[in-house]
Design brief:
Elements (H helix, E strand, L loop, with lengths): L1 H7 L4 E5 L1 H11 L6 E5 L6 H10 L5 H10 L4 H8 L12 H13 L2 H11 L5 E4 L6 E6 L4 E3 L4 H8 L3 E7 L7 H9 L2 E4 L4 H9 L4 H7 L3 E5 L14 H12 L6 E5 L5 H8 L10 H6 L3 E5 L14 H15 E6 L2 E6 L2
Parallel strand pairs: 1-2, 1-7, 2-3, 7-8, 8-9, 9-10
Antiparallel strand pairs: 4-5, 4-6, 11-12
Amino acid sequence: MKRQTIYSQGPRIVAIGGGTGLSTMLRGLKRRTSRLTAVVTMADDGGSSGMLRTDLGMPPPGDIRHCMQALANTEPLMEKLINYRFTEGSLSGQSFGNLFIAALMGVTGSFEEAVAQMGDVLAITGRVLPVTTENIRLVADFENGTQVTGESKISAFKKEQDCRITRVHLLPERPRANPEALAAIEEADLILLGPGSLYTSVIPNLLVEGVAEAVRRSPALRVYVCNVMTQDGETEGYSAADHLRALLKHAGGRLVDYCLVNSAPIPEALLSRYADEGCAPIRGDAQSLRELGVEVLLRPVADVANRQLARHDPEALSRAILELMEEHTVRTLERGEPRYVRES
């Protein structure tokens, strides 16, 4: 009973991002609080999501589906079904989970309601919210003056141009935010940005009208969770401070209080494989981060047993995040509800 009480009265956590990085973190966090909200980018235009977006004119469901799976509390067969991809015929490559969201959208009449209903079907812990439901496109500008439109095209185009991304922006500029997402940010005890692709999963959320401003004015503890490795086609050669500079540039000012960086060693065989792609572990350069007004938090949060990919360990990552909260917030009661107030 004690564990259940602590779980139900855990902190209000809002995690902002997209892709596999966000869903990996959610798997660990759902064991520590039920008051969990994922705010998810809607800039994806490739693969199964891109096909549905083109054919049905709906927002891309892929990142939403990944988060739903991470937070699901349902039978293993249902999880396998949601993750199933057709291998033949006209549906080849399509995810059943994405089609399920599309069908729910047809039944309910709105993407937001379809996502909410899918959450009920999967009995998810917390909520998953699209950051916007407008039809947006992601555009990347490069150091050499070139530009490419489409989230799915950015990585290959960057490799071709062989230079850094200077800026990403949305078409249309500053789309309207999902009001529920803004409300969740305003009510949060802890706001997490990342982990995930810097330019295509994390930053696009901050370009939606009001999101960066809501994070900036929040009294909550705010943490940027760095990826374990730099990313081929986006952030080769970047340090943790380089990631943060890009965030601040796009958000228009100070955004977070801490930067969480992995300190666990990566197996040599895995390092060699990543080096072939020009990628390496992200360095937590403490002095540079402090000059940007952010403290670095070095913790062993990588899955060092994984010999295929350098990813976060969900349990280690969630433990590091909650320990940070315990150290820097005070638990209070507000109208009978627990709140976690940042220490000044």
